[in-house]
Queue: 4 jobs
Job 1
Amino acid sequence: MSRRDRGLVLALLFGGVARNWRKPWSRSSEVVDLSLYADLARKAEAAKIHTLFLADTVPSDGTPEPSFEPVTLLSALAPLTERIGLIPSISTTFTEPYNLARQVASLDRLSGGRGGWNLVTSAWGGEQFGKELPAHDDRYAIADEFAGVVKALWDTWAPDAIVADPRRNLFVDPAKVRRADWVSEHFSVRGPLNVPPSPQGRPIIAQAGSSEAGKVIGGRHADVIFTTGQTEFEPSRQVYDDIKRHAVAAGRAAGDVKILPGVGPVIGSTDAEARRIWADSHELLNYERARASLATQFAGVDFSGYDLDAPVPAHLLPDETVVQGRRSRYGVVKRLVDSGELRTVRDVILYHASAAGHWFPIGSAEHVADQLQERYEGGAADGFALLPFFLNYPAGLAALTDGLIPELQRRGIFHTDYEHETLRGNLGLAPYVPARPPSTVKEGS
Amino acid sequence: MPSDSSPLAPGQRVRGGEQLVLAVLIGGVGNHIGAWRRPGSRIEEKYSLSLFKDLAGWAEAAKLHAVFLADGLRLDLDTVKGQPFSGLEPVTLLSALSAVTEHIGLIGSISSTFSEPYNVARQLASLDHLSNGRAGWNLVTSAYGEENFGRELPNHDDRYQLAAEFAEAIRALWDTWGTDAIKIDREHGVYADASKVRYADFKSEHFSIRGPLNVARPPQGYPIIAQAGSSDAGQNVAARYADLVFTTGRTSDEDSLAFYRSLKSHVVAAGRPASDVKILPGISPIIGQTETEAKAIERELNGYIDFDASRARLSRQLGGAVLDDLELDEPIPAGRLPAYEAVEGRRSRYGVYLGLIAEGWTLRRLIEWEVSSSGHYVPVGDSEQIADLLLRRFEQGSADGYILLPSFVPEGFQLITDALVPILQERGAFQREYAGTTLRENLGLSNVAA
């Protein structure tokens, strides 16, 4: 197909050792050791994966899994990598926009233009900040304003504002820096930002909520959208079209937004081996912790007291629209129950703990590549967010970097090298120039 | 030695063999406003990791205890025209440096006025893990920047009250993980011992935080806490929470000694041994290969000053005093100056300036002082002379070490690491190797166990 000139985008969700930590080959004892993540990042970079992104994880089976904080970890990886993108998730609910804009801009400078921000709204955690968690729609209203503030702060600098001419004693051309003067319902931020302009015009904004409110925000603000990977092709294509429509409605070109469904491929040298790997990964699951995690993450869905092999108590599953936390993820599970694909309590817990609602094709590299290619060429994805649920590191990552990715390259849909210095360039996005030319500010001297 | 301060071991050399603690500011291309205009200043790398990687590497090769990054939450449009601003944010920059250094401490300023304790506790714990126990937090209160956070600036004393609660909250969050909570028991499926992870349930006037933190116990137990405010409220916070105190290096030995004694008595009053808190005055030396060269560099640097543009900067240090119409070579009339207690921002630094003004300093000299050092002591000389000065104050008992603020980069930085430090080592007053693994150990303090 003509669209597909090596333009497929791959992101790698970068997490801890997840549920395979009990396997002898797992490097779980290095969960707070930079060397593990440095290895993963370098291998991902060698495979030309466009970007790493870090979730703010709560482990899906309830195991207390300490991890690094995303901004600090990705900053540490900046000097250890050269081309791969670095996108931390940071909450719009419990952070100040000025602090966030600064840290991301700083990460972007430190990495020579590879920084980004995955805009998340936090579905829990109010008790750590002495406040009530705002309701779902309020969180997205705040997030929308928040993204506006952050973009306004990043736009306070013209790209050529720093002159640094010692003879004229002119360091910054004051006509090329301006205030943001942002005032909205929740935020009042004057600016300018105290970090110089981005090497890529502006750091990349990613976004992950696929609820209706999430799509509006993504369409308006995001360069990259991580969607919940649907098991079936058609719903996936509908979500894709819907988000592109939102982007166009927000006055942007459809190509300005890269849509990356989450996919956790389980790859073996044969389909049969892949199925064995999948079955094997269930072995050590702690169902009771996973059950507790389900209750925490989908507030109100409490299966405690039900036999694992009992049919799903459907009356416990509320309508999607009334769920306040992780609504779109919940919707996926609810639909799978309604359609009969998930029948027992065990099925739901396993599904939740395994893929957190994402798509997990199981098979050989060729077989999985077929499915990815179909979605990419069929207009259901611009690329994929690879999820490490089954990254039997190191073998699981190698299955992606040495199995799946060469297969995608052989088919001519994935790039064979980075062609740009910046993440924006490598993602195939248009160069960014600040929306409005900075107005002249009063010179104070 | 003041009688009420750190105990002296019997015997040898300076302070009984006790050695200096040295940290260095890595703000950019030099603490003097004119430093960026010197040929070879590396100003082109001011906002790139390459410069900071070199500075941290040089500091580590010299066995300095820590690098330090200051911070502010405002870009001042009145001063950026002729003066480089900080630019890179401390937590991100120090995290990047953690990956390219092995021994040196990494201390960054983070505001207790405009941040959330949970976020700060988390990032510091994460930095401590990334660096294997080398993280430090300079607990600052912000004297400006409120316009970027949509709120009023709390007044001076309220900011310090908030800072104290903030420090308590952060330590409570670090305490939510026991030292050995992570088990990685594959056989029994025990990842972490849940009985060693607990809620913080922290409540104070301004904060309510349940915990636990989602980062494991920092390798140091508590990352190092530094504190830089020297007002009475600042000294009280330092006495309760700080391991290190960065204070304005005074010009006179007497003032320096008076501050040291005052702070140590606050520490003792807070129930801690005086030696638990290391007092590090800021010194911004202009070092040359010879004294003559140092003086020539001072003249060169001062020759880069735009005096008219710098009046605004000095005015801010002086509580907004109007200076526009004053002659450069006249003293500042007392009537122009606000009362000490009326100054809400950077009060203790203002006190230092009031002292200089009382000595009859002219506006020109005050501006030179402000833009060379932001009020810190700026001795000028060759490395032997600077070493003499540092050791004299150390022996007098007015410093446990220093925070060095290089006036110009790279030569001024390398004269510290390659000329000054070896002299201090030869005199037995500075370490030749790092003493331990963590910053806390290197400072002669114990890691904090849960």
Job 2
Amino acid sequence: MSEMWLNMGPQHPMTHGLWNLRVKIDGEMILDCDPEMGYLHRGIEKISEDRHYNEVITLMDRCCYVAGLAWEHLYILAAEQALHVTPPERADYIRAMCDEFQRIASHLMWYAAFVQDLGLMSPFLYGMRDRDLVLDLFQSFTGARMTYEYQRVGGVRSDLPAGFTDRARKVLDWLDERYVEYDRLCLGSTIFRERCDDLGKLTARDCIATGVTGPMLRSAGLKRDLRKDRPYSIYKQLDFDVAVADAADVTARYLVRMEEMRQSSRMLRQILDWLDHHPGPVLADRLPRWLGAPYAPQGREGYLLKRNYPKGLGFSSVEEPHGEAQAYVVNEGGEHPYRVKFRSPVFANISAARHYLVGYHVADIPPIMGSVDVCVGEVDR
Amino acid sequence: MQPDDVARALSTRLGDRLLGVETFVGTAGRVRFRADAALDTFHSVHDELGFRHLSMVGGIDWVDHREVFYVVWSDDVRQYLILSADLPADAAHIESATPVWESANWHERETWELVDITFDHHPDLRHLLMPDGYVFHPLLRSFKLHEPEELEVKQRSV
């Protein structure tokens, strides 16, 4: 018997980002594991204390680089509560649209990376190709493909360009046909099924004990989705189903994410219809001027109004593509937030690694960790 | 669940160690408890109120004291509850929540290294995001990002 600790990372094809999975192995069997994080720690919470409220949005795109708009929404919801600001309804709809398109883009990125881990090259190319269509849409109204800086305290930066909803519907039509192809490529493949079935099991009980959320939790049969259970923004108005699966293995996580993309398409069609028929402002008109650009372009003078602004606490929780993300914003009346704290869903999902890795083989690690959908940017912040 | 319901359920076990339950928009309330009642509070909230999912643990440095807060979720009432305790700055320590919620493990490691709050009886209190042997606690207010004069330079035309 020879037990040893093996480092998988910080640079390793399995990791998708910069982190180190230390596994204790005996031959091919995994006996224990210890994820080491922090290689991507940029101190986003600390830097936020030194920024104006709207400047923190820039950091949010860097926080999770595959779901920037969802993280902007998360922070904005908490900041608006702390600052006592209400956005116009159209801005809420646009943000929800961003969320759902971002979910599709993020899941497509996951799909591409996950199947590549399994050695399937063509689905990887299809996934990346279709994700680019969503990024094209983002580019048309934010000007960027990855770091959007689009949402603002009190609304969003600008309204959607003319003809956007029709272009978006075309992309959705295209994607709806592609989901069928994805399933045929993966679920129809014996290699895929034999690789992924009964792998990386994590029961609902362990999910709750370890704080696991998102597609991993729903793949264990628990029907929990903040968009249904605690509807934020405009999700109460939307008609959709929560994607669940029972097997709690890698295949189940695949099924949940695929169904989530379909449900996102369904929601997006409702949102796009609403946007077509309800023009209006996208920024609140009664905003404190010190919030910064574009409200106080003259520079310092606007900040003077900040005195005596009421203090406040903000807490928000959104169903981000990876799971439940939370933000806690403390407004102590200064120009900057006093404290910003974020909860990353992947942080909790990785911390449970012992529960879904131990007992499997070393060669099972890439598909299992692939099915977790790791985004190190939001774990380390 | 309303803050009053939470207060009623917790006060039997905690007595005057429960300092109050405040209204917090979007949650079932914000429970303020004395740090020496930590384990009792956790057990009550988990077993009796049914908040079985710990979402996050965080710390705030208020300079004269520190605050540690917990966000928990219940699948029964589908609500969040926030627990918060004040700790003295010179002896900031509290009982670990890991016996009640296993997920507290990493969150407490992070809070310890960033905000310098020690969690007693934590099974594995070592660095998570910072390198081993790192002696600073970056999220303390005394840890300056810039010197004041650099902050003056930062005020640019936007």
Job 3
Amino acid sequence: MLDTLFATFFGSQPSRNPQPVAVLIGFVLLSILALNAAGKVGAGIAGVIIFFLLFWIAGLLGWLWLAAALNFSAQLLGGQGTAQDSLRAVILGVWPLMISGPAIAASQWPGILGQFLGLLLGLVVLIGTLMSLTRSLSQVHQLHWGRALLAVTLTAVTSLLAWLGLILWPLMLVLGL
Amino acid sequence: MRLNRVLALALVTLCLIAAVGNWLGGSMGKSNIQGSANVAQINIYGVISDEASSGPFSSGEGANANKLINSIQKAREDKAIKAILLQINSPGGTAAASQAVYEELMRTRKETDIKIIASLGDVAASGGYYIASAAHHIVANPSSVTGSIGVIVRTQNVSSLLDKIGVQTSTIQSGPLKDILSPFRETKPEERTILQGVVDESYQQFLDAIVAGREMSLEKLKPLADGRIYTGTQAKEKNLVDSLGNYYDALEKTAELANISGEPKVRNFGKSSLFGDVGPFLSTSNQQLPQVPPEWLSSESQWPRWHKIPLTIME
């Protein structure tokens, strides 16, 4: 399992039997994000549990949405993978978000070093997630890097447009009906 | 173990440890922010009682004694707190609730060096003054209404009215004194004696509390404690309050008594959190509500009720 985890993190080829690793990454990621959030509001153990449950629901919804949107974009750009492949690609592709734990911890160190490390690791999280998601998508859909990156960008734009639609549609219905 | 396995495990472990650190650091950071205040302000507004809060997202009406006690305990446990500033605007409340808050303040006085200062608002009478008497120093506005030191039991006899409208009442009781304070008949001499005993005992407890809190002789207090109310100015003349002034004067006095140099940092210890009663669940502090003695919960109507002058015991 650790070999698969390493291959997921740093390997250039698709990892074999990635389901257990996907579950592990999902669980660890949710735990890290819940702990980070609990730390921000100074919550106790009960707060961590509440955050974990909330993030589990939010994560599930986000995962489904992102996978659907990525799958749609990838298919548009000639992707070969299935929806199930896209679901797996998302969960394996967002692993760099785990580094948000060390990034936040480093940013709290006193002095310029803390600020620098926080910024650096923040960039690693941001760029790493983008790269990892792109790589993951390119592997499961057998897309070239450029196309996979375009699919990810298209998904990000679609997400923003979806937010706009979420506001405009009800407004249109309220005004028009 | 192969290097890549070690690297994978190390990365996951490092991220998890850092996140746990973020959580613990955040919690401690919050505690430090709380700890930076050196004056704990506790507001006592409305009727003092042990009545439950009206809902999970509201603190309920009036001053809940258990919440006040909890706030006092939290202030006492906070090492940075040098003084407690009680902001009182209350016509009184139940005897037991007022007494419970008073006792907690007196415990704080005995066990710690924390100075307690009471700032009286519009009114701090009866139970409100009972609590204020636990303070090292009481500041009142010249026109604040205070005093009302005394106990009263009031009953009505509505039997003649019921006779007129043809209503007959009957009582089945386990003992001859179970329907004491019944409004359907004249109070018996035996009952009068019992009620007088309750009033006297309650009154004596009230006097003893003021004597202990104000360090005042009983002989000097008793003539003042005939139930009358005083303005802040009158109360100052009678030594029932220590100085005249507003909230900011009280805050200044707090800083002076607690030897706080510079601007005192005040934190409201009784303030409800964003999530109302859910707040403590999300909080880092392991709060436990004080246990309410069962006798407080039973027969609420029999509590001596020092509410809305004059003080009454209602059936």
Job 4
Amino acid sequence: MKVERSVRVEDKLFCNRYLVDAGRPHIKVRAHTKPSPQLLALLKACPARCYDLNDKGQVEVTVDGCMECGTCRVIGEPTGDIEWGYPRGGYGVLFKFG
Amino acid sequence: MIEERFDAIVVGAGMAGNAAALTMAKKGMKVLQLERGEYAGSKNVQGAILYADMLEKLIPEFREDAPLERHLVEQRFWIMDDRSHVGLHYRSEDFNEERANRYTIIRAQFDRWFSSKVREAGATVLCETTVTDLAQDAYGRAIGVRTDRQDGEIHADVVVLAEGVNGLLGTRARLRERPKPNKVALAVKEMHFLPRETIEARFNLSGDEGVVIEAAGTISGGMTGMGFIYANKECISLGIGCLVADFQRTGKTPYELLDRFKRHPSVAPLIEGTEVKEYSAHLIPEGGYKAIPQLYGDGWVVVGDAAQLNNAIHREGSNLAMTSGRIAAEAIFQVKSRRLAMTAENLALYKRMLDRSFVLKDMKKYKDMPRLMHTNSQNFFLTYPQLISKAMQTYLRVDGTPKSEKQKSTLKSFVNARSWIGLFGDAFRFARAWR
């Protein structure tokens, strides 16, 4: 599964403001050996590209750039692949314009 | 733990939550509003267009100090293929009126202002507080909420769930289902900054006049989706949204889609040389009337996006949110005034009032539209835009071909692509869903 690299999402996220709640990610991926189709879909569907594959071919999430849209919740929560919550009050993305 | 007891707790400070909190506070009710953002608006994303009529019902003199961008004098609808667009534009001097009907706004700024009005009306607004659960008694009646800030529960007679499209409380408490991938769209948006004179020159505007461009076609790559470009004072909101189920199915990425839209020859000159200052993403309810969940129960009501109240055909959401918030608040006040309990039976008044308003009448009118658009996305978003573009080009290009031959070839291209049965079927289905 090749993830689209021609657009640098990092550059887009760079202009956003965040207050990262270090060590308390608000999204968790359930431990797995082989990712489900839903989990693989998140590699591309997440608009902040928070999901990536590790060396073992498992899906990992890094929530630092998350815009809290809920796309992964809609796709990945029904199958139990991810656990989704909102960040603690005041943390997460801080939209200047919205 | 907050020992105080409130008449109502409002979860969320978006359009629906602010409308509800303001309405109840103005009527003298003791209201607590909880918002997880650092301030009201810091988690909220919209295009955004403000519909004055619905706000006037809440704050008649809002034009005096609300942070408005531009009043809209022009609407452009574009049907796009990869290299062209066919447009339907409407511009009228009538829209240059003292009490304009529609404005572009920037949500983070607008919501902050809206929230200041809620505070002035006497509500207690607590930001940076994420509500984690609905507190229910042994009979399942809502009695308050739990937050990540205090231990224990905060109690109220009624909880107004204005928690947005992705509201967790309602699903955690099993009041409604989590939205399905084919019932919500993911929209991504960028804020492009330019000097105001440049925006006015590029969009043919003067003063505070504004324009909206809404675009559909091959820009969504066969998915059910839409692009938009809104002129603000010193920036342009530009974005595109498609059904989550379509993203899941096609493996297209939202940011690649956005950048393709930006590179389109009809769009690129409008945003040339801009400085992008924000990238945002948000879900939009697209399920229509049939996706509306149970709207009230013992001790609770749900309003706005959390209740899937969005008219996707007219791209109206914030006004439905504001109106449902206001109506819910008025219903709650009536129940309270009659000294009745906040039971499902009594709160059913909210649904009855909403049924009589434009909110549910409009939603009902287009009840079959989502299914039509979602199941025929290839035809409506790829095939037809390509055919229409080709027909326009054939019509306009002067090359010595007799007009009758041109007409024949255009007709043939439509029939070849969709067949007679397909064409009539599409027209019939569209008309039936629209009426």
